[in-house]
Design brief:
The complex is a heterodimer of chains A (155) and B (704). Chain A is α/β, with parallel strands linked by helices. Chain A is 38% helix and 14% strand. The termini of chain A are close together.
Amino acid sequence: MTTGTVLLVEDDDQDEMLIVRALRKANMANRIDVARDGQQALDYLFREGPYADRSDELPIVVMLDIGLPRLSGLDVLDRIRNDPRTQLIPVVILTSSDEERDLLESYRSGANSFVRKPLDFAQFADTVGRLGIYWVATNVPPPHSGSSDPTRGRS
Amino acid sequence: MPIAYRPSFAEFGPRLGAAPTGHAPGLDGPLPRPAADWVVVGLPAVAGTLAILVGAASLAGWATDNGFLRAVVPGAVAMKPNTAASFLALGSALLLVLLSRRSVPAVARRAAGCARALGALTAVLAALNLLELFSGTNLGATRLLFPEALARAGLEYAGHMSAATSLAFALLGIALAATNARWRPGVLLTQSFVLAATFVGLLGVLGYLYSARALYHIPGYGTMAVHSAALFLMLGMATLLAHREYPLTSEITSGYRGGATARALLPALLALPVVFGSLYLSAERWGWYGYAIGMALLAVSMVAVSLAIVWYTARKLNRADQARRADEAVLQHFAALVQSSQDAIIGKTTGGIVTSWNPSATRLFGYGAEEMIGRPITVLIPEDRLQEEAMILGRIREGDTVSSYETVRRRNDGTPIDVSVTVSPIRAADGRIVGASKIARDITELKKTEAQLAALNAELEQRVQLRTAELRAVNAELESFSYAVAHDLRAPLRAMNGFSQALIEDFGATLDPEARRYLDQIVRGSTRMGGLIDGLLQLSRSARGTLRHERVDLSAVAESILRELAASDPGRAVTHEVAPDQIALGDERMLEAVLRNLIGNAWKYTAGCVSAHIRCYSDSIDGRTCYCVADNGAGFDMAHADKLFKPFQRLHRQDEFPGIGIGLATVQRIVHRHGGNVYAKSEPGRGATFWFHLSTHTTAGGSI
C-alpha cells in the first residue's frame, strides 16, 4: 500500500463526511485532502493561490465530483489532462448524476473511471470503500505523481 | 337570340349535318355536288368536235367534188361551203373556249382571243349572207369558197346559206365573240342569243321530225338541212354549258339542290314533249283520231308530266327544308349553349382574329361583340404576355389543345384579371383546322382563395415553428430540471440514509432498541423516497426525448430481463416461457422499460406462488399484433382497473407487495407515445395478463 495522498473534490459536506467515513471503514489510511470546489482543486494541484507553498507531492488519485459550483468537475478534468504536470494522475469521477452525457464527457475528457454514488447507503459505503482500496492499493500510479519512490515498493 | 356568327354549311358541312336530323341517311344523301365535268366539259367538247368533223367532211366533199361527203347525211341536201366553214369555225371556237377555261392564264388568253376571232368571223359571214338574201345584191359572199364547184353543182346563186341558218350562225357567232370580251353586252343578252340559236335548231329538228316543212324551209330564203339544224341544237346547248357565267347555266350546274334537281329533271323535261308530240302526231297521221284529240292527249300528257315533276321537286325541296330546319335547330341549340354559358366562349381564326364573342365574354372582358369581332385577340393580352398567343396558336395549328392554362388578361378598362383558358382547334369536315375555340374562366376568386390559403399555410407554418421552438425550450427546461432533480434531490437523501446507517453501524450497540427502531424507520423512509424519485425520473424521461424507430427484438429483451431478475433473486424458482422472434418497431430503450416494468411486476406479484410461471408471447387481436405478459400470481380486482395505470395509485398494500405505483403509468405513457394502447385483465388469485399493441404506422409520437 502506497502512502500517497488522495484528493477528494466534493462540494457537499455531508457527502464528504460519508465518503471519508466509508474510506476509513475500508481501512484506507492514506491522507485525504478535500477541495470544496473546482478552483480550490486546481489551486491545490498547481500550487497556486492559497496553496502556493504547498510542499507535498501531487496526489496519487483524484476523486472528482461533477456537480461543483462555478467550475464543473469536467472542466477541472480538462485542466488536469491538459497540464503536463498533472496529465497522468488517475482521476475517478464519483458522481450522483446518471445522465448519459456526463458519462460520455467524462471518458472523452480522459477520466480513468466513472462511479455513480449509490442511493442505498450500504451499497454506497461498500462501493466507495472498494474504490478507494483499489486505487491506492491495487492500482500502480504513474511515475512523477509524487510518491512513486521505487524503494517504497508496493504491497 | 342574336347570334354573332353563323357558321356556314360549307365550312362545317356534313359534320353538323351528322347531328341528329331525324331522317335516315342516304334518303337525301350527302349534299349534292356541282355538275360533273363530263356534263360541262365532255358534252360541249363532243358537240364542238362533231361540228368540226361535219364541217371538215363537207368542205372535203366540195374540194373533191364528192357528192356524198358534200351532203354528209345520205339523202340530205348538200351543205353549202359557207355553212360547212362556219360550223368548222364555231366548233373550233367552242373547243377553244373550253380550253381557255381550263389552262394557265397565258394559254387561256390566246385561246379566248382565237375563239372570239372565230366567232366574230362567223357572225360577219352570216351577216353578209343575210344582207345578200334580203337585199338581193351580190356581195360575193357565196362565192368565197369553192365557186367553181358550186357552179358545177348549179348552185352558183343558190349558194346562200338559208336565212334561218344565217341567223343561227350570227347569233352563236356574236355570243362566242363576246366570251370574256371586255365589251360584253351583258350575260343575259348573250345567253338569250344562244338560246335563240338553240331554238332555231330545235324548230328545224322538230320540223324534220314532224314533217312540218315550213319549219325548215322558207320559200325564197332557203332550206335548213337536217344536220345543220341538229348541229345548231347541239352547239347551242354546248355553248350554254360551256359558259358557266350565263345565269341559266349557273343555276343548272350549281352544286346546290336546285342545280341537282334541274340536272335530274332536264333530260326528261327536254325529251318528253318531243316524244309525246311525235307519238300523238304519228297517231293522228295514221288516222286514229283528229288533230284536236291529238292536242288534247298532248295537253293531258304534259299535265301528267308536269305533275310528276312538281311532285318530285316538291318532295326534294321539302326533305331538304326539313333537314335544314333540323340542322338549324341543332345549330340554334349549340348557339344557345354558347350564348348562355357562364364561361366566356370566343371563336378565333388560326391567325388569332376574333370570329365570335358570347355575352359572358362581354361580361368578363368588357368589350361588346361588335367591338371585338374582326379584331385580333391580342387586344385582351397584356404586353408582358403577348408571346403566349403565338405559343397557343402554334399548338392549335398542330391540332393540340391547351387545357386550363392559368394566365392574366386585360379588360377594356385596363384592369388585369386572372383567367383559366382552354383553347381547342376547330376542324372542318375534311379535318383541316379552320380556327380555334377559346373558353376563358374568371379565376380571380380562385386565386384569392389560393392566396389566402397560402397565407394561412404560411401563418400556420410560422405558428408551428413558434410552438416547436417553445416546446423545445420547455423540453430543454425539463431536461435540466430532471438533471437537477437527479442530482440535487438525491444528495440530501443520501445524507439522511447515510448518516442514519452510520449511526446504526457505529453506535448501534449503545442505542436503545426503540431508538434503533426509529432510526430504521428513517432509513426506510429515505429509501422509499429514493425509489419515488427514481420512478418520477423514469416517468418524466419516458415522456420526453426523441422516439427512435428501430426493429426491437422483444423476445431477446424479455429473456435478458428474466435472466437479470433470476440472477438478482436466486432464491425464487420462476419458470418462464418467451415466444421467440417477437419483433416490434419502436424505441428500444423505452420498449425495454415497458417490458422491465411488466415482467418485473409479474415477478413481484408471483412472489407468493408455489409454481410461479411467467409467459411472454404475441397474439393477434382485432387484426393487430399484441405483445402479452401473463403471470399466475396474485392478480387484482378488475373493479379497480381504472386506477391501474394512474401514477402512485396501487391496488395492493405496501406490506402485501411493495412498490411505488409508477411502473404501469410509465408503461402506458411509453405505449401511447408509440401510438398504441395497453390493457389488463385479471382475477384475484388467478394471475394477470397485460398486453399492449403499438401503432401500425411508425410516426406515433413523433420527435420534438
